[in-house]
Design goal:
This protein is mainly beta and about 375 residues long. Helix content is about 5%, strand content about 40%. It has 2 domains: about 160 residues, Galactose-binding domain-like (Jelly Rolls, Sandwich), CATH 2.60.120.260; about 130 residues, Sandwich (Jelly Rolls). Strand 2 and strand 3 form a beta hairpin. GO terms for molecular function: enzyme regulator activity.
Length: about 375
């Protein structure tokens, strides 16, 4: 009997591991670090041993953090989800092998991170052979925790996800705290309506959003050849991001997702589309507020070819939006559609916020309609 029970446990363990290794949308295996090292694998908060944290491999000075514990410098560390997280010290990293991916498919990784005592923190995120640098020195929430997204295109069915702290501080423990690592397959961006020339104009396709974190997901700046966590769109900036919102926690003009321009003039949301020089087009979009307390005259500028439309939305911070249209003539075979917040706005708690953009469409004006415009 004992042998058969042991055999059944072995089969069950095999099935569980097989399911976990497929990496479905959502948390990675032990992605919230609630399963921790045994006591003999730790020296205080310092994790000893490369495979001491289940489902992860570590390198360098990695600490296992329990929510509410007080550090040597008197700082109390909070954890956004569950009770445990990890902190990456100087040149430390964590990694997990992603499996069951489809070659050629794009994926987005979402994770939560919090700064500690370093001033100019950043994280290197890679899924070989692709890598990116995520600046995390700007904090967009009052809790100190933000969720970040990083996207890549799978070259193989399996690859290592690595999150690395490249910083070198006097205090080796001055590094970011990491929690809640998830993955999501990104579908090819499609046009949201038959005549809409823009892809993913409603922003419904994007990075994984944690259902229990009420602060959205930051989409970082990227080079033009990078894979975007927000298919169809690129964020142009040096160090700033835009925020991806869900309707469960924010006011969204249409559907279940939208984008908040939280960095003022320091970041722009861009999509490039093929056009015919001399032909007229209409760019339509919604601009409003996320019902997150961001009050005041929120201004967003929309650009396309030589056209520019400044929109000022008087927000009470409780939700709402206005619909806007920009008519322009294309001057080249490729036209950039650009949205940019023209002010730096703050909520009452001092955190950055800005206008919300959603439901964007670009349509060609038919010739007979264009004639009416100029009659």
């Amino acid at each position: 009997m004992e042998g058969r029970a042991s055999s059944r446990r072995g089969v069950l363990l095999f099935l569980l591991v097989g399911v976990a290794s497929a990496n479905p949308d959502g948390l990675l295996p032990n992605g919230n670090f609630e399963q921790g090292p045994d006591k003999y694998q730790m020296n205080g908060t310092w994790v000893i041993g490369r495979k001491s944290i289940p489902c992860w491999e570590i390198s360098g000075f990695v600490e296992y953090i329990v929510s509410g514990q007080q550090q040597d410098n008197g700082m109390v560390v909070a954890v956004p989800e569950g009770a445990r997280a990890v902190r990456l010290g100087n040149d430390a990293s964590i990694r997990q092998r992603l499996t069951g991916m489809t070659r050629g498919t794009s994926y987005s990784v979402t994770f939560s991170a919090s700064r500690t005592c370093a001033q100019a923190e950043q994280l290197n995120v890679s899924v070989a052979p692709e890598s990116g640098v995520l600046p995390i020195q700007t904090v967009y929430t009052s809790s100190g925790w933000d969720s970040y997204s990083y996207a890549f295109r799978a070259r193989h069915s399996a690859a290592w996800l690595v999150i690395h702290n490249p910083g070198v501080e006097e205090d080796p423990a001055c590094g970011p705290v990491i929690d809640s690592v998830a993955i999501k397959a990104l579908h090819p961006p499609s046009r949201t309506a038959k005549d809409n020339m823009l892809k993913n104009g409603d922003f419904e396709e994007g990075p994984y959003v944690f259902p229990d974190t009420p602060w959205g997901v930051l989409v970082p700046p990227m080079d033009e050849d990078d894979v975007s966590p927000l298919p169809g769109w690129t964020v142009m900036s040096d160090t700033k991001a835009v925020k991806y919102l869900d309707a469960a926690h924010f006011a969204v003009p249409r559907g279940s997702r939208a984008v908040e321009l939280v960095a003022g003039t320091e970041a722009a949301l861009v999509q490039e589309v093929r056009t015919t020089p001399g032909r007229s087009y209409t760019l339509s979009f919604s601009a409003g507020d996320a019902a997150d307390g961001c009050a005041g005259a929120l201004r967003v500028d929309a650009y396309a070819a030589r056209g520019r439309l400044p929109v000022s939305y008087e927000s009470r911070g409780t939700g709402g939006f206005v619909r806007n249209e920009l008519e322009f003539a294309a001057v080249a075979n490729l036209t950039r559609v650009v949205f940019q917040s023209m002010g730096h706005y703050m909520k009452p708690d001092g955190t950055l916020c800005g206008p919300v953009v959603d439901d964007v469409s670009l349509v060609a004006v038919h010739k007979h309609a264009a004639r009416r415009l100029f009659m």
